[in-house]
Amino acid sequence: MTLRLIYDNYEKHYETGRTNQNKSRVLIAKKLAKTKMKRSTTNRFLANSLRTLCCIGALTACSAWATVITWQLNPTAANGDAGATSLNFTQSGYTITADGYDNVPGADTPHELYFKNLAASGGGSERGLGLVGTLDNELQTSGGTPSNYIQLDLRSILSQGFTGLQISVGSIQPGESFLLFGSNTQGTLGTQIGGAYGSTFDDQFVDITGNFQFISVAAGALDILPVALRGTITPVPEMSTLFPIVGLIAAVSCTHILRRRRAAQKTVSIV
Ligand SMILES: [Ca+2]
Ligand SMILES: [Ca+2]
Fold first, then answer.
1. How far, in Å, from the CA of 164 to the mean position of ligand 1?
2. Which one of 4, 28, 176, 264 is separated from 113 by 20 to 30 angstroms, measured CA to CA?
3. How far apart are the CA of 167 and the centre of ligand 1, in A?
4. 42 versus 85: which is more confidently predicted?
5. What is the CATH number that goes with domain 67-233?
6. Percent of the chain beyond pLDDT 70?
7. Which runs of consecutive H residues, i.e. helices, occur in 109-176?
8. How would residue 239 be classed by pLDDT, with cut points 50, 70 and 90?
9. Residue 19, C-beta contacts closer than 8 angstroms, at least 6 positions apart
10. Which of the 8 DSSP states describes residue 202?
């Protein structure tokens, strides 16, 4: 009887001990799971935030490379003969060439360029690139046909990826206008693009449509003066510039993977 009682007490104690042990194991497991969940949520949030930041950084860097370049056709505000029928204009390392021509039967003949810079007159700006020996040193018409024109050679900038080209023309007093022509042959006026641009377009940039290597400016009515050309360049980003961003993304990903692995190993050892 005494033995039976001792055995019963021992069994009771043993069972209670086991139950308590199990309880504490479950509690520890629950605590660890809770901590793991918290840590995992925090890690995931951190990793996602860093990834988003990296993407924003990359996109910002890419968009920042799109640059508008403007070529003033009288960059030094000179006023006098240019001394040449052909001139290069380089801005930020990008070059366009302007050539003066007389629009004559057969092959058009080169015409010396002129830098004009006078005070604005009659609502029209008077600073730009004209021709030597013409009335007011500007581009003229004769019976509705351009007497002469200034042709811009865009081959270099087009080959470098410039887009969104626009041109600005001045000295468009009321009743005057300018015309644009596109050609793929140097020294040939080519095809008219767009309509006649009147005085409301004085010294304003207008789109150059079509896909021509040479764009010519001519007078549509009376006389006008080309002012500037502009376009947008988006250079291909160099890999060396992207290295820090790519490196950061790789580091974040690696850290995330390592943490997940460590967490998985801990779970296995507990079980
Ligand atoms: Ca001709
Ligand atoms: Ca004029």
1. 29
2. 176
3. 23
4. 85
5. 2.60.120
6. 67
7. 155-159
8. low
9. none
10. B
Ligand nearest to the CA of 139: 2
| pLDDT score of 88 more than 90 | yes
pLDDT bin (cut points 50, 70, 90) of residue 2 is very low
Rounded to whole angstroms, how far apart are CA atoms 121 and 264? 80
Q: For residue range 24-51, list pLDDT tens digits in order.
A: 565 655 665 565 555 556 566 666 766 6
Q: How far is the CA of 182 from the centre of ligand 2 (A)?
A: 22
Which sequence spans correspond to the domains of the chain? 25-64+238-270, 67-233
Is it the case that residue 64 has pLDDT exceeding 90? no
Round the CA-based radius of gyration of the chain to a whole number and report it: 38
Ligand approaching nearest to the C-alpha of 176: 2
* Ligand 1 center to 11 CA (angstroms): 117
| Gap between the Cα atoms of 270 and 267, Å rounded | 5
Q: Residues for the chain: how many in total?
A: 271
Which residue carries 């060439």 as its tokens? 97
**Cα(166) to centroid(ligand 2), Å:** 20
Which tokens go with 25?
């194991």
pTM here is 0.69
CA of 20 to the centre of ligand 1 (A): 105
**Cα 149 to averaged position of ligand 2 atoms, centre (Å):** 14
